[in-house]
């Protein structure tokens, strides 16, 4: 470990946010904070601390909202925290990032430019270089408030696995020479494969560069002016708010944000949902986060701890693996674990002191310390938390999660995103006993998780448990595994951009409120014709009902054109005078405003 | 990341590394002898063995530090036997081991009596390590003839010095394979271009088979030499040696003797896996990408080992081993029995 530098100007500080303030890992994170989730046998926060320690950070301040004690005790004993000059300090923050940084400002802990990182970040990027670059940039341009660090996924819109698992990705426009950020927006394509760019951003930029498929890491190098800025703007709650605020009010306050994009050999990813947990574990085992390998991260006696076999198989020297067990590839077996005969393991992480019975097949599953799997089981794509048990002859396939201390009975088949918690502990409604026994086995002590707070669930559906239990459970579990949220985002954006498509390209979808608007518009035209209003009055009236009905200007143009063409036809029907009626349609100049 | 993850970036030649270890050990031995008056040879031997285990722990790929510890152990054991008297010396020879009734008891020997002899022997060892590269150069240069075509792979300090020494007296041609993904061959080429008598050219690894029929000799280096003639060498060596065997081209491996490990070759030996991103930028979920740093070359492909003690045929490696290390020190394990066969617990 290094010592504190004499000069305060050389002090390198980092702020780690150990609470992500969303409920992606809901029932699991109730007893164990996300920062302490074991990822390949090592608590998640250790990866971030490792990276910061490599970058030469002297002092680390960790903010958390809940589980203060467990986090503090972990930081006191972790081998990673010994690498800092002073051991990391844990502080409490009620709300997301905003409150944490306000607390920083009040307590006057920050002396220099600091690194802001989330606790669930796994990266091998060279943060020391980033910090140096930021300092150089500040020397040239003193208004640079922070350097946002994002990761690009190659291939543009061809989603790689990381992209697919993300909740959202970003598009940015930055100056090609200085890296100054001009525009940052969540990305989404409409049905025609187009994205929105702001003209103002592109015009004001010198030589601009367009980034697509950026992943938000929550990582930034902040200058010493960021905490006072948060104190001034008391409604800033996240980094997004800050960046947006700076970009919008650039002319007023003169601050700028820079963008640094990681790519190529630098790996960086946040473990923000279950899919990413699985993906990052796989990447870690497959050596993509070199030089952080499971062997090197596992503690002080690192190199002797694991025996490294071919195809990324790491077996702890204190584990006992039966000779006939087949460890095919990307397997990590922790100390004290036992693997029985005839097993077949692919892409697994077996935590410390776990037991795997005979003739069991495990693939893509993650066993936390103390989990027990009995014989003849077949488990794939699942997570078994601390001290959970799966009894004989069971099958858990496709994204099941067993939380702490759950026991799932013999000969049970669980598929498709089942979240199993201990019954009697969860405050949510549990099924009847018979159902439990049938679903989860006769020796189980568990219940299927039904969240009381689901974003998708209607109020009506809450009381009516029988009508759609399958759908509701699916929606909760899918939310946790993040399979549909990305699609939803795209849908939302496409409906907005649909309205901006050229009229005539496709038929604009009609909405319920629009009929009312059309009728109002017809009335306006009628009155205008009767009372011989000038065009200006008509325009004012149309504008006022546009605002009253909250119609988008492009929709208005379409509906107005339609209505004007419709109006004489309606008049003909009403008047019923002659068969061929000719109406003069005045030229477009009246409507050119 | 800490230094252990990038052994290549250390730029310490193997003999310098070995000398560091020996120096450290001699200091600790001296301290131990001064501190504890009742120390016996057994204690000292135990201490050095623990250091060997620690070296293996720090870097499983590095065999040179362990070998240096073994040399020191050999010195200790020899001196202990010497001081035990003539009868013990008789016992310790190879033939008599079969008939001896009890093993040599090192705890009989006091550490004080060994002090002078051991320090003198360690000084000799340091000198030998320091001059190992120079000796290697002269022995290696003798194998290259006038107007021959020599093939080599990547950058190696020993091979570069051998070629430079040979170029002092004759002209010849060198073909260098650039070994990906770090392309160290270009570094070798830059070095060889400064030598007037050498006509150096660069080819890709894949091209080696095609030019092998024109090559007179292959001159390579290895990171470790195993007791059965296998190698742990730079990635790409195995393919090169197979091509050489196919064309019956003699292969010379220039290594100093302290790289000779008493373990047998096995594909499960320690290897360093680098970041796959240097091969493939996008991590495709369906592809398994491995980027090993070293090749584990099976025995039977090398014609001659050129060491600082002279040329050594693969069949006689065991003799060199027996001279350098004591039989009891061949296996130094981490205290836990490993399932695999293999003498050295890598």
UniProtKB/TrEMBL annotation, chain A:
The keyword tRNA-binding does not apply. SUPFAM superfamilies: Nucleotide-diphospho-sugar transferases. Residues 461-475 have a biased composition (Acidic residues). It is found in: Cytoplasm, Cytosol. Gene3D superfamilies: 1.25.40.180, Hexapeptide repeat proteins, Spore Coat Polysaccharide Biosynthesis Protein SpsA, Chain A. Residues 428-475, 493-514 are annotated as: Disordered. Pfam families: LbH_EIF2B, NTP_transferase. One of its GO terms (molecular function) is translation initiation factor binding. Residues 14-142 form the Nucleotidyl transferase domain. This is NTP_transferase domain-containing protein. The lineage of its organism: Eukaryota, Metazoa, Spiralia, Lophotrochozoa, Platyhelminthes.
Automatic annotation (TrEMBL), chain B:
Keywords: Cytoplasm, Initiation factor, Protein biosynthesis. InterPro entries: eIF2B_beta_subunit, IF-2B-related, IF_2B-like_C, NagB/RpiA_transferase-like. The keyword Protein biosynthesis applies. It is found in: Cytoplasm, Cytosol. One of its GO terms (cellular component) is cytosol. Belongs to the eIF-2B alpha/beta/delta subunits family. This is Translation initiation factor eIF2B subunit beta. It comes from Macrostomum lignano.
């Amino acid at each position: 470990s290094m010592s504190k530098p004499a000069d305060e100007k050389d002090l390198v500080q980092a702020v780690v946010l150990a609470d992500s303030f969303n409920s992606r890992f809901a029932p699991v994170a109730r007893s164990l904070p996300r920062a302490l989730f074991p990822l390949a046998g090592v608590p998640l926060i250790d990866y971030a601390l490792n990276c910061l320690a490599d970058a030469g950070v002297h002092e680390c301040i960790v903010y958390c909202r809940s589980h203060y004690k467990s986090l503090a005790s972990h930081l006191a004993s972790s081998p990673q925290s010994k690498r800092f000059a002073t051991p990391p300090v844990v502080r409490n923050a009620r709300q997301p990032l905003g409150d944490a940084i306000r607390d920083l400002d009040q307590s006057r802990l920050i002396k220099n430019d600091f690194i802001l990182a989330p606790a669930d970040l796994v990266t091998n990027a060279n943060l020391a270089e980033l910090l140096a670059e930021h300092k150089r940039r500040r020397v040239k341009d003193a208004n640079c408030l922070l350097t946002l660090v994002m990761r690009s996924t190659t291939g543009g819109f061809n989603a790689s696995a990381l992209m697919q698992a993300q909740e959202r990705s970003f598009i940015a426009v930055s100056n090609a020479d200085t890296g100054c950020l001009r525009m940052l927006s969540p990305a989404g394509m409409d049905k025609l494969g187009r994205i929105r760019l702001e003209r103002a951003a592109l015009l004001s930029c010198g030589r601009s560069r367009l980034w697509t498929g950026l992943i938000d890491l929550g990582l930034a190098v902040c200058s010493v002016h960021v905490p006072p800025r948060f104190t001034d703007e008391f409604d800033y709650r996240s980094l997004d708010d800050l960046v947006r605020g700076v970009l919008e009010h650039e002319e007023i306050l003169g601050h700028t944000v820079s963008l640094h994009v990681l790519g190529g050999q630098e790996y960086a990813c946040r473990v923000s949902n279950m899919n990413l947990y699985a993906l990052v574990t796989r990447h870690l085992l497959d050596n993509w986060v070199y030089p952080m390998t499971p062997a090197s991260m596992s503690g002080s006696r690192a190199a002797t701890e694991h025996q490294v076999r071919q195809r990324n198989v790491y077996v702890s020297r204190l584990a006992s693996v039966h000779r006939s067990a087949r460890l095919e590839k990307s397997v990590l077996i922790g100390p004290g674990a036992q693997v029985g005969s005839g097993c077949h393991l692919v892409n697994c992480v077996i935590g410390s002191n776990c037991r795997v019975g005979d003739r069991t097949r495990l693939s893509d599953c993650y066993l936390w310390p103390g989990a027990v799997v009995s014989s003849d089981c077949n488990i794939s794509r699942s997570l078994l938390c601390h001290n959970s048990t799966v009894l004989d002859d069971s099958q858990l396939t496709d994204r099941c999660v067993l939380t702490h201390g759950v026991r799932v009975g013999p000969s049970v088949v669980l598929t498709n995103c089942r979240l199993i918690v201990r019954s009697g502990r969860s405050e949510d409604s549990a099924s009847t006993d018979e159902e439990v026994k049938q679903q989860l086995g006769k020796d189980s002590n568990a219940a299927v998780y039904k969240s009381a707070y689901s974003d998708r669930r209607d109020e009506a559906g809450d009381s009516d448990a029988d009508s759609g239990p399958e759908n509701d459970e699916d929606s909760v579990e899918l939310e946790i595994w993040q399979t549909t949220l990305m699609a939803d985002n795209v849908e939302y954006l496409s409906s907005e951009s649909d309205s901006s498509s050229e009229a005539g390209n496709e038929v604009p979808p009609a909405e319920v409120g629009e009929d009312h608007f059309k009728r109002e518009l017809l009335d306006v035209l009628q009155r205008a014709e009767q009372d011989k209003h000038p065009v200006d009055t008509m325009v004012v009236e149309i504008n006022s009902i546009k605002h009253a009905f909250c119609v988008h200007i492009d929709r208005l143009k379409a509906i107005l054109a339609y209505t004007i063409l419709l109006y004489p036809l309606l008049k003909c029907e009403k008047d019923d005078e002659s068969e061929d009626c000719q109406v003069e349609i005045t030229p477009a100049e009246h409507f050119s405003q | 990341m800490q230094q252990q993850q990038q052994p290549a970036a250390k730029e310490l030649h193997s003999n310098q590394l070995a000398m560091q270890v020996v120096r450290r050990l001699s200091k600790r031995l001296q301290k131990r002898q001064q501190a504890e008056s009742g120390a016996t040879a057994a204690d000292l031997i135990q201490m050095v063995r623990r250091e060997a285990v620690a070296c293996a722990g720090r870097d499983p790929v590095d065999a040179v530090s362990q070998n240096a510890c073994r040399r020191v152990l050999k010195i200790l054991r020899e001196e202990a036997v010497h001081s035990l008297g003539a009868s013990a010396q008789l016992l310790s020879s190879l033939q008599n081991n079969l008939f001896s009734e009890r093993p040599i008891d090192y705890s009989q020997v006091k550490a004080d009596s060994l002090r002078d002899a051991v320090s003198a022997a360690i000084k000799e060892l340091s000198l030998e390590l320091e001059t190992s590269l120079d000796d290697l150069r002269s022995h290696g240069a003798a194998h290259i003839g006038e107007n021959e075509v020599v093939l080599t792979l990547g950058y190696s300090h020993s091979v570069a010095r051998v070629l430079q020494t040979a170029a002092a007296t004759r002209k010849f041609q060198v073909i260098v394979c650039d070994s990906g993904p770090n392309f160290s061959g270009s570094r070798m080429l830059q070095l060889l271009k400064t030598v007037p008598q050498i006509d150096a050219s660069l080819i890709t690894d894949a091209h080696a088979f095609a030019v092998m029929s024109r090559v007179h000799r292959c001159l390579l280096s290895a990171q470790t030499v195993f007791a059965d003639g296998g190698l742990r060498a730079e990635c790409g060596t195995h393919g090169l040696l197979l091509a050489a065997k196919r064309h019956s081209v003699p292969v010379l491996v220039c290594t100093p003797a302290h790289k000779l490990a008493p373990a047998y070759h096995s594909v499960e030996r320690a290897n360093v896996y680098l970041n796959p991103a240097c091969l493939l930028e996008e991590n495709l979920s369906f592809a398994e990408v491995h980027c090993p740093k070293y090749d584990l070359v099976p025995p039977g492909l090398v014609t001659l080992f050129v060491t600082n003690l002279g040329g050594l045929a693969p069949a006689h490696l065991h003799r060199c081993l027996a001279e350098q290390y004591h039989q009891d020190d061949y296996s130094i394990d981490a205290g836990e029995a490993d399932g695999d066969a293999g003498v050295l617990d890598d």
